[in-house]
Amino acid sequence: MSLDTIKKPIDQELTKFEQHFKQSMRSSVPLLDKITYYIVRRKGKQVRPMFVFLAAKVCGEIGEPTFVAASLIELLHTATLVHDDVVDDSMERRSFFSVNALWKNKIAVLVGDFLLSQGLLLAVRNKQFRVLEIVSNAVKAMSEGELLQIEKARRLDIKEEIYYEIIRQKTASLISSACEAGAASTTTDDDAIERMRIFGEKIGLAFQIKDDLFDFGTDDVGKPLGIDIKEKKMTLPLIYTLAHADRATRRHILNIVKNHSEEREKVDEVIHLVRNSGGLEYAQEAMFRYRDEAFALLEKAPDSEYRTALRDLVSFVTDRTK
What we know:
Elements: H1 3-6, H2 11-24, H3 30-41, H4 47-59, H5 64-87, E1 92-93, E2 96-97, H6 99-125, H7 129-155, H8 160-184, H9 190-214, H10 227-230, H11 236-244, H12 247-259, H13 264-275, H14 279-298, H15 305-319
Helix pairs in contact: 2-5, 4-5, 4-8, 4-15, 5-6, 5-7, 5-8, 7-8, 8-9, 9-14, 9-15, 11-14, 14-15
């Protein structure tokens, strides 16, 4: 199912959101306005605003607080992407030049700071303090998750529980906050809001495991195979392979990741070992388990076209090929 089909129940809200989001990025500084205009023009699939609006609709009726929540989530997400490109020294984002590629790192960092501050001000001006707390917790978690991953990458000693803690903070926290903020914008029912938070967290975990699988896949997904190995990231298929390999194979793999991750032939060797270890199947089972747990939580909400669309969006996220 296509995203266009999934978003039909909230088409009008997403159209209105576009204007809301553009307005939230306006600046009186010409250079900043030029850069934010460039960012808006190359926006992604809007998956996170879709989670906000669908979660909001599942829990109640959409009003101005939902548009504030969606804009805040998207401003935060955009700020983290701009900063990530600086950290990763990446020259491209979604097949376009990154902000740092066109305007250098110093300006990119300042643009990211501006976007984050605009989000905070948007929430304060509209007195959306609960949504502000939700999103601030996500920013904290994302920063901690990234730093935990960097720390562990140096020693390559990640166990499965640490891996899950990293991706819960680094990836799942943003999708979780999108669902939680959407719910909080339309209901005061704490149980419903908490259910949406956990639902989003499980989807975020499934989303990241799917991304891990791309690193070892056979399809052309627009992401070079083995890029996570090159960056010394310990993904679930690799962690499983290391845990179940004999001592010599484990040492061989770790040596490649530590010392030869820039060599294509060596990286291909690790990919081959992971594919033959059962690591991909293990990770896929974990992804489907989180997806099914999310579906079970969703079933507790009243039946509606919005609940159906949210379920379809989850399927899209876990079935995607890029």
